[in-house]
Write a structure and sequence with these properties.
This protein is α+β, with helices and mostly antiparallel strands. The protein has four helices and five strands; from the N terminus they run ααββαβββα. A hairpin with a 4-residue loop joins strand 1 (45-50) and strand 2. It starts with 11 loop residues before the first helix and ends in an 8-residue tail after the last helix.
């Protein structure tokens, strides 16, 4: 499914860590920003990021999509890997309808392999699997 690409937010962490971003790093940022927009369009709000040690909450249900995406990306791109969490509906926390996307930065293929894995519930009452299947990372290469 083709979607209109969203702008990648300027990240403060990039200005601190990098003089310039590689093409692969730019691709990873395009993919993550557009994944957040795609899942938002399918009704999934960002609810946080797990950095391997702790869960960092993000209130994607009340923040604008741009601000929630910027917040998750500021955290994510300080790491080598993380899980970003999404939720459809009103359940709180990491239970019930929460779904994860595992990101691994520098995972190869010019940044296209940044999505290393994701939740795949069976049954899938809220359409998560279909939403993930419809997202084509190659569109953002």
């Amino acid at each position: 499914m083709s979607m209109k690409p969203v702008p990648v937010p300027e990240l403060a962490i990039d200005m601190i860590l990098y003089a310039t971003l590689s093409d692969a790093q730019k691709c990873e940022r395009r993919i993550v920003a557009n994944l957040c927009a795609h899942l938002h369009g399918a009704g999934f709000a960002l609810i946080g990021l797990h950095d391997g040690d702790a869960h960092n909450s993000i209130d994607g249900a009340t923040l604008s999509l741009a601000e929630a995406t910027r917040q998750v990306m500021e955290l994510a791109f300080t790491l080598t890997d993380c899980r970003i969490w999404f939720r459809k509906g009103k359940l709180e926390g990491l239970n019930g309808l929460a779904k994860a996307v595992i990101l691994v930065f520098g995972n190869g293929n010019g940044g296209l392999n940044v999505i290393a894995d994701h939740s795949a519930p069976n049954p899938d009452p809220d359409g998560w699997n279909a939403a993930m299947a419809a997202f084509d990372v190659r569109q953002f290469a």
